[in-house]
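Subject: Predicted fold for DUF7781 domain-containing protein, 170 residues

User T.R. writes:
Posting the sequence so we have a shared reference for the thread.
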Amino acid sequence: MEAGSNGEEPTSWEELYNINLVPSELFVKFRKEIEGYRVGVNLEFYNAPINEYQAKLVLKPLAHDRRWKFIYEPLHHDVRLLSKKIPITKFLNLQVGVGHSFQLHATGWKWKLTTCLGGDGVSRIRNKTTLGLCPGIDFRFGWRADYVFPEITGQVSYCLFAFLLKKITC
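User M.O. replies:
I've generated the structure tokens; pasting them so everyone works from the same file.
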């Protein structure tokens, strides 16, 4: 890398980008299959952006083509009936649901578009990994990688642009 015109030291490649790997969630799921349904207790611990704890009771059919799941959150006194995530594209899913909050005395519906490639105006990759500890108990942890790449500036001469355009159209 060359020194700038104002005599500054050259920037190293390590200073041009930033990747922050953050463990973001930890779930412990206890599951039991009863007459064609899966009943579960999920203990969910969130690390980022705030530290939070949630407990959920989940009921969903065991059928391969299941289309719904029922969730009760005893700490927030909420019930929800959610659809299965519907793939729209390879990286984009839609989920819809209806719910009721006993604390707020409110009923409503909501929809959610999810992707593994980011959100909230941040360049981010999210992933989840599940480990089966023993039959009926799963351990899932999620992580995210926030990344910032350098701003690249410069010029392209007309000759180079014409050359690239010619190669692309051939």
